[in-house]
Amino acid sequence: QVQLVESGGGLVQAGGSLSLSCAASGFTFEDYAMAWFRQAPGKEREFVARVGANGVATYYANSVKGRFTISRDNAKNTVELQMNGLKPEDTAVYYCAADRRAILNTGSLYPSRYDYWGQGTQVTVSS
To answer: How far apart are CA 69 and CA 85, in angstroms?
Structure first.
């Protein structure tokens, strides 16, 4: 069955770094674009970053651009999110998601676009 398993979350001080990883199985990983979303308490799930199926094209939310880097390893079926310069407002549960549609458009920013989801990993940034 399809599985997306996130890891790497934790507690970090403002200005620090964390690296999240998502291990995929049960589908043809190299055919899917992958993304990270996050959800803070009382807020809607929001787009963070996306990487195309071949790992070349990336796209970021303005709030994380220049601080976060998304990458993937199709040989290992993993997608990473390197987070630097963390801020308290980055505190959320982070989810990885898979999209079988290659095209990047406005719809790519919405959770409803994505076919598969992980269970999430908590990231807490203290001030």
So the answer is: 12
Place of tokens 């999110």: 81
Exposed, middle or buried by CB within 10 Å (0-12, 13-18, 19+), for 94? buried
* Ramachandran assignment for 76, one of left (phi > 0), alpha (psi -120 to 50 degrees), beta (any other): alpha
Which one-letter amino acid corresponds to residue 62? N
Please state the three-class secondary structure of 66-123 as a single string: CCEEEEEECCCCEEEEEECCCCHHHCEEEEEEEECCCCCCHHHHCHHHCCEECCCEEE
| Residue 105 pLDDT level (bands cut at 50, 70, 90) | confident
